[in-house]
């Protein structure tokens, strides 16, 4: 092939590409801007509850939303401890949701909105509103609180724009010595938006992992020194 022929073909190819680009630009001006969206990454995670009797962490979730790790938004936290207060004492402190604002650092307001009737005298249920604030976030939400005196407290968030779901469970059983308690605590939460990913990490570290200690300190203030126990 002659140099002239090769050069002619190269020029023709460039002209053709330029015409195609002009066509795309004209089409984009008529139909709107052209945008490109990469396919989201989807990785299925595997989770299970840990069996260690001490404080344990477990996260689960599906990775989606353009590579954003959904397990950053959702976490499950479990804690099992032996505390030097009776099940009744710990139950009374945890069940008094309207007093959370007095001793939980992140709780700015707490109030009971509505009581629900129950047949069993040891069962109780009510709706409570909490306003939580940590770092630069302040959010109010309503939870359904279900009580089985003096064994169990469960709260489930009902009306919140911050959480996709938020569930807390407390269980109280007699401990190894009189006046002590085997405490089981679980919180399962997921934030609504990937934009809250960093907030979720802060919430998990600064709030959730310190809850049991906060209630134990509240018992000390109300009931005095704890019974000596070996965990």
Automatic annotation (TrEMBL):
CDD domains, per the entry: COQ10p_like
The protein's name in its UniProt record: Coenzyme Q-binding protein COQ10 START domain-containing protein
Family per similarity comment: Belongs to the COQ10 family.
Phylogenetic placement of the source organism: Eukaryota, Viridiplantae, Streptophyta, Embryophyta, Tracheophyta
Subunit architecture: Interacts with coenzyme Q.
GO-annotated biological processes: cellular respiration
UniProt GO molecular function: ubiquinone binding
Function statement: Required for the function of coenzyme Q in the respiratory chain. May serve as a chaperone or may be involved in the transport of Q6 from its site of synthesis to the catalytic sites of the respiratory complexes.
Organism, scientific name: Cannabis sativa
InterPro entries: COQ10-like, COQ10_START, START-like_dom_sf
Domain Coenzyme Q-binding protein COQ10 START: 84-215
Gene that this sequence comes from: LOC115724969
GO CC terms: mitochondrion
């Amino acid at each position: 092939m002659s140099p002239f022929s090769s050069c002619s073909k190269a020029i023709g190819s460039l002209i053709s590409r330029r015409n195609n680009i002009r066509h795309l630009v004209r089409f984009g001006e008529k139909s709107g801007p052209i945008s490109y969206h990469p396919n989201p990454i989807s990785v299925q995670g595997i989770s299970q509850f840990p069996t260690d009797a001490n404080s344990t962490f477990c996260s689960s979730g599906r990775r989606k939303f353009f590579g954003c790790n959904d397990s950053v938004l959702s976490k499950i936290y479990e804690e099992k401890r032996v505390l030097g207060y009776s099940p009744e004492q710990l139950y009374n402190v945890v069940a008094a949701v309207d007093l959370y604002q007095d001793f939980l650092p992140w709780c700015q307001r707490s109030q009971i909105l509505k009581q629900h009737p129950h047949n069993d005298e040891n069962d109780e249920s009510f709706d409570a509103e909490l306003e939580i604030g940590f770092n630069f976030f302040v959010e109010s939400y309503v939870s359904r609180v279900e009580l089985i005196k003096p064994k169990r407290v469960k709260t489930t968030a009902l009306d919140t724009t911050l959480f996709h779901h938020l569930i807390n469970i407390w269980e109280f059983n007699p401990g190894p010595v009189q006046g002590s308690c085997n405490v089981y605590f679980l919180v399962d939460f997921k934030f609504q938006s990937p934009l809250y990913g960093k907030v979720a990490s802060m919430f998990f570290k600064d709030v959730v992992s310190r809850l049991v200690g906060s209630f134990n300190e509240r018992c000390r203030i109300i009931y005095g020194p704890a019974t000596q126990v070996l965990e």
